[in-house]
């Protein structure tokens, strides 16, 4: 079997381990930067999660300002507000401390700091948009410090920002298209499991399942390179093993494993696509911004698996194997169905919603959700082709 072709570029300096967030000051000083804008949200600041980062900046004499106005499911207005703060000061680097919402906002603010135009001009909806090279200049320097174990945004080349006028989550992103080419993302990421210690159980469950979904969709995606599959398989085994403990007890060893899994899945996102799970979940989140992303992901994952396995059972049989299920003597279809049941059991074990009705989605909105999902970049990597009627069927299954 041919391994096909792929291009590998990962220009981000990563440090993983307990206490690594307190290296922020040393790392900034080593780069010769003297001032920083710390981007975060009020909850993180109030919880004291920022304290170690601030102490490290002060210890190295780094001047800094904290911007803590980020909210869940960030909008274009939030990006521009953060950009105004960035433009108002003479900051050498942005330090994003938070979950996906904080990091994605910081990514887009640093993008617009050095590239002209509106954020919508950098939206990607089809593969050709990604390779068009809309990001011409390297974004302003960015350091990412994740506080949730789920999105992997600290190390990927993507961001998701809601355009309220369209009720649509825009995908913004670009990998390096040539050696040393500009990309959307961090120069440095400090990945510190200790920062996830105070994450509430429900958010632990939702973000943790999001990490699982990244590995799942990356693994079965159309054209997924063999390069990512050892990583995706590992994450699909790791999350079911450790997420229940992280959710139920907050055990730090389990949290460390979950952040590692999230981080590894974020790496895979740069080299493999997603699919209908993320298409449908992000469209639903754009129309219902109060729904946490990971919860929408949980609702759509089993129905999309059922739809896709009809044509690609072998890929989902690999999911069953990765999850540690006993597939001896089973056909690919039987093993694939076992994988769906195991995913449903995981969702139930960590008390995530299993239907759109639980999320108070209006059934009359399902056709619009299906139609809008065809406008997303993620749908192009779904292993099985799907039109609006197909996606409506999946959405009804999720209801």
Automatic annotation (TrEMBL):
Domain (Fe-containing alcohol dehydrogenase-like C-terminal): residue spans on this chain: 204-399
One term of GO molecular function: metal ion binding
Highest taxon, organism lineage: Archaea
Domain Alcohol dehydrogenase iron-type/glycerol dehydrogenase GldA: 14-180
Key words of the record: NAD, Oxidoreductase, Plasmid
Organism (species): Halobellus limi
InterPro entries (UniProt xref): ADH_Fe/GldA, ADH_Fe_C, ADH_Fe_CS, Alcohol_dehydrogenase_Fe
Similarity comment: family membership: Belongs to the iron-containing alcohol dehydrogenase family.
Protein name per UniProt: Alcohol dehydrogenase
Lineage of producing organism: Archaea, Methanobacteriati, Methanobacteriota, Stenosarchaea group, Halobacteria
């Amino acid at each position: 079997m041919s391994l096909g072709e792929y291009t590998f570029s990962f220009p981000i300096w990563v440090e993983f381990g307990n206490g690594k967030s307190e290296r922020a000051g040393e790392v900034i000083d080593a780069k010769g930067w003297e001032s920083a804008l710390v981007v975060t949200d009020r909850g993180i600041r109030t919880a004291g999660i920022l304290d170690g980062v601030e102490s490290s900046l002060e210890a190295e004499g780094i001047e800094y300002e904290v911007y803590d106005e980020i909210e869940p499911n960030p909008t274009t207005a939030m990006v521009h507000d953060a950009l105004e703060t960035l433009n108002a000061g003479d900051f050498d680097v942005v330090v994003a401390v938070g979950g996906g919402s904080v990091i994605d906002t910081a990514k887009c603010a640093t993008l617009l700091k050095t590239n002209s135009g509106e954020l919508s001009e950098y939206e990607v909806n089809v593969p050709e948009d990604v390779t068009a090279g809309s990001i011409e200049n390297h974004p302003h320097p960015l350091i990412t410090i994740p506080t949730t174990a789920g999105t992997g945004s600290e190390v990927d080349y993507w961001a998701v920002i809601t355009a309220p006028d369209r009720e649509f989550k825009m995908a913004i992103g670009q990998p390096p298209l040539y050696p040393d080419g500009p990309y959307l993302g961090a120069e440095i990421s400090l990945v510190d499991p200790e920062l996830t210690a105070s994450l509430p159980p429900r958010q632990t469950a939702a973000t943790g399942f999001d990490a699982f979904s990244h590995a799942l969709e990356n693994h079965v995606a159309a054209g997924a390179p063999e390069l990512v599959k050892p990583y995706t398989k590992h994450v699909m085994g790791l999350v079911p093993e450790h997420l229940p403990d992280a959710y139920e007890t907050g055990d730090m060893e389990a949290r460390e494993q979950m952040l590692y899994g999230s981080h590894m899945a974020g790496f895979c996102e740069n080299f493999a696509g997603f699919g209908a799970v993320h298409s449908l979940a992000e469209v639903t989140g754009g129309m219902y911004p109060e729904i946490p992303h990971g919860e929408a992901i949980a609702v759509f994952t089993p129905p999309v698996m059922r739809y896709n396995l009809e044509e690609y059972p072998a890929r989902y049989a690999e999911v069953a194997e990765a999850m540690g299920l006993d597939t001896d003597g089973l056909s690919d279809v039987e093993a694939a169905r076992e994988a769906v049941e195991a995913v449903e059991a995981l969702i139930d074990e960590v008390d995530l919603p299993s239907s759109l009705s639980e999320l108070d989605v209006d059934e009359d909105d399902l056709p619009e959700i299906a139609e809008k999902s065809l406008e997303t970049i993620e749908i192009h990597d779904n292993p099985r082709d799907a039109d609006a009627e197909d996606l409506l069927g999946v959405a009804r299954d999720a209801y």
